[in-house]
Structures are given as C-alpha cells and as structure tokens.
Design brief:
mainly alpha, globular
C-alpha cells in the first residue's frame, strides 16, 4: 500500500469509528496507534508514545487552557450570564425578535469570559429560554438564536480554540485574540440582522416585549462593569506585554473567582464544582489533543500531508482557490466532527500549505488571517446538521421543541455565516486591521 493510500485508509477507519459512536479522541488515538505501528513498526511506536506524550503535555504554554476554562466556570457561578442577558434585554427587548437579539448579544458578551461555545450555549440557554417562552417566541427562533449565539464562545476572545491554533501555528496568542475581535462583532451583528429579517417575514415568531425605561437600562448596565473590566484587563494586559497569556488567564480566573464569591455567593462547594468541571473539560481537551497528535504522526509517517501539499502545488491552483477548497472541506467535515477535533486534526496539515502561498501579505499576517477563517468555519460546524453540537445542547434544554424545528431555526444564521466567510476572505483587512493598528 502506498503512503497516500495508507493515509486515506486511516481517514476511512477514523470516520467508521466515529459513525459507530466511538468518542472522537479514542477513535483518533486508536487509528493513529495502529496505523503508526503498521507503517513504522511497533518499537518506534512505543518510543514515540513514551517521549512525545510527556513532551506535549509538559509544555508550560498549555497551562493557559485549564486557566481559561476555570475562568469560564467561575463566571458561570458568578451569575454573569444573567446580568449580561438582562442588560441586553433592557435595550432590545421591546423590538420584534428583541429577546432573541438580546440572547445573541448576551452570548457574545459571555463568550468574552467563557471561551467555550457549548458552555456559552448551555448557560445562556438556561437564562434566556424561559423568558422567550414567556413571550410566546416560536421554538425554532428561540432555540436557533441561542444555538447560533453560542458559537460566538469560540470566536470572541479569550478562546480555547484560538489558543490551540496559536500554539500549533506558532503565532502570538495576544494577536490572535485581537484579530478575532472585529470578526466576532460582525458575527453578532449578522446574527441580529438575521433575527430582524426572520421576524419581519414571521412577526408572530418573536413578539415585542415591554419597553424598559432609561433608568432601568442604566441600572442593568451597572451589573456588567466587572465583566468589562475583567475582559479589558486580560486582553489589553496580554497585548501590551504586562503579562504572558498564562498569567493573563490566571488574572482573569482570579477576577472571576472574586466576582463568584462576592456577587454569586459561591462557597467551598461551588469552588469544588468549578475545579471538577475544569478538570473534566481540560481532560477532554487534552485527550483529544493526544489523539490528534497520534493520528497526525501516523499521517506524517505515510507522508500524506507532504504528498497532498505537493499535489496542490503541482495542480497550479491560485492561492484563493486552495483556500476555498480548504474552507469547503471544513464545512463538510463540520457536519460530522466536533470543532476542536477537526481543528487539531487538520491544522498541522493545512497551515504549512497556506504559509507557502502568496496572498499578498507577510507570513505572520497570512497565518493569523487563516486562523480566524478556520475558527469561523469550524464555528459553523457547531450548528450544521447532523452533528450540530450547539443545536443538541439547546434542544436538550427545550425538550418541547422538535429537533427538526431547532435545525430549521438555525438556517438564517447559517446564511449569515456563509456571507461573513465570503466577506472575511475578500477583505483580509477586516481581520488584520486592528492587529496592525495596535502593532
């Protein structure tokens, strides 16, 4: 069997294991171990497992991940999601579809202190769904807006996926965070526009609520100052070099902890729950990382990435055509894979290809731009059928809404996503403008 045939066989086995509901981390680890052993030999496999596993997880920079996860856990216990939703609803709740727009705005703001799409969707869903039910919102609009809004958790910095991409592509975490800000704001505004168009066609789907007075609106903003402060200190401090990304994550986690104790009334039991939740999430992320590393080692042994790169170069395609093909592949993979696994599996293959193409900008700018595009497209996979994880999370909270209605409800947001991807590809300055301005 040739190298590329072995690599494609490995992909087929991986998809087959996923199809029978083997966890993605286990599927990648199993396929990678067996494939590497068959291609390179079993003794080299044991040597690789012995040294690489320790080297990968003893890296200091990886400590940023559990710290950002812990920050999100504390933020949830501090009741920040409720404060953010109330503030957004006070300003937009009187509009048709206003509560759905407020949910999206709340998700965007909560994503700035959480960094996980699933956690953002689940937390905001618990807060917003009862309110939208009370005002007779349609099940499709209520669940669709929350599932789509939850995807902002991995785009609005600080984001675990942005950290992972920065580490794999050897880019600045702070610059990745800054580059994601404008695309994140565009995403939130695009989702709100999708809601406005949806309720214009179906006014009964999102009835207007009562208008809040200006004193009520200003009062709601008082509860959000601490969130803005934590976000500002973490992002500005990292970018200005006041502290490293790991130190910034620790500062953010400590700030969220103080708020959880002072505002959320968290006590020892809550602290233990946050630590256990962080351990579970971090363990899942690291196991996926190990599985992806093992599978990528198998692919490297078969020389599939190098052969694929050479085939693309020999095909004579323009850089934009190559980029379009990669993004379309991400959209297709997003229908069957979760976002983190997809990114960890593909970035080691794709980023050297992109780095070697001429997009009219420097290597660093190209890789930052591609990283944001990759995260945006991966984000779309969280709401695409049949494995839209955010849709399943929100539908689990709204058990009276049929799954079909939830997937139907995300369609306007998918259209918004596709238009946003085209915009970011056509105008790289949207992503890189803020990075260059602050540089």
């Amino acid at each position: 069997m040739t190298g590329i045939a072995a690599g494609l066989t490995g992909f087929a086995v991986l998809l087959a294991l996923m199809a029978i509901r083997i966890p993605i981390a286990v599927a990648m680890l199993t396929t990678g171990i067996v494939g590497y052993g068959l291609v390179s030999g079993w003794m080299p496999l044991l040597a690789f497992l012995k040294t690489n596993t320790y080297y990968q997880f003893s890296t200091y920079s990886l400590s940023v991940i559990p710290l950002f996860v812990l920050m999100g856990e504390f933020a949830t216990h501090a009741g920040m999601s409720r404060a953010l939703y109330r503030a957004a609803a006070a300003f937009m709740g009187h509009l048709r579809g206003g509560l759905a727009m407020a949910s999206i705005g709340g998700c965007a703001a909560f994503g700035a202190i959480c960094g996980s799409s699933l956690a953002t969707a689940a937390t905001m869903g618990q807060v917003a769904l009862p309110e939208m039910r009370r005002y007779n919102y349609s099940g499709a609009l209520a669940t669709g807006s929350l599932a789509a809004g939850g995807t902002l958790g991995i785009l609005i910095p600080p984001s675990v996926i942005l950290v992972l991409y920065a580490l794999m592509a050897e880019q600045s975490i702070a610059k990745m965070f800054v580059a994601a800000m404008v695309p994140g704001v565009i995403a939130a505004l695009g989702y709100m526009l999708a809601v406005a168009i949806f309720v214009r066609r179906r006014p009964e789907a999102g009835p207007a609520g009562p208008r809040a007075s200006w004193p009520e609106r200003l009062e709601s903003l008082k509860e959000t100052w601490s969130i803005i402060l934590i976000f500002g200190v973490v992002i500005v401090g990292m970018y200005r070099g006041w502290f490293t990304p790991t130190e910034g994550a620790a500062v953010g986690a400590f700030g969220a902890f103080v708020l959880a104790v002072v505002k959320g009334g968290m006590r020892l039991r809550g602290v233990v729950q946050c630590i256990l939740g962080t351990a579970r999430t971090s363990g899942m992320i690291f196991l996926i990382m190990l599985g992806a590393e093992m599978f990528n080692a198998f692919l490297s042994a078969t020389q599939t990435p190098m052969l694929a790169s050479q085939m693309i170069v020999d095909a004579g395609l323009s850089p934009l055509m190559v980029l379009a093909a990669i993004l379309l592949l991400y959209l297709a993979m997003g229908c069957v894979m979760d976002s983190m696994s997809m990114l960890l599996l593909t970035i080691p293959i794709f980023y050297p290809i992109i780095a070697g193409l001429d997009f009219g900008m420097g290597r660093e700018d190209t890789l930052i731009w591609f990283g944001i595009l990759a995260v945006v497209v991966v984000e779309v996979g969280l709401i695409t059928p049949p494995v839209g994880m955010n849709v399943f999370v929100i539908n689990g909270l709204a058990r009276d809404v049929p799954m079909w209605d939830s997937f139907r409800g995300v369609m306007p947001f998918l259209i918004s996503d596709l238009l946003r991807i085209v915009l970011l590809v056509a105008f790289p300055g949207i992503t890189l403008g803020l990075v260059r301005a602050l540089g």
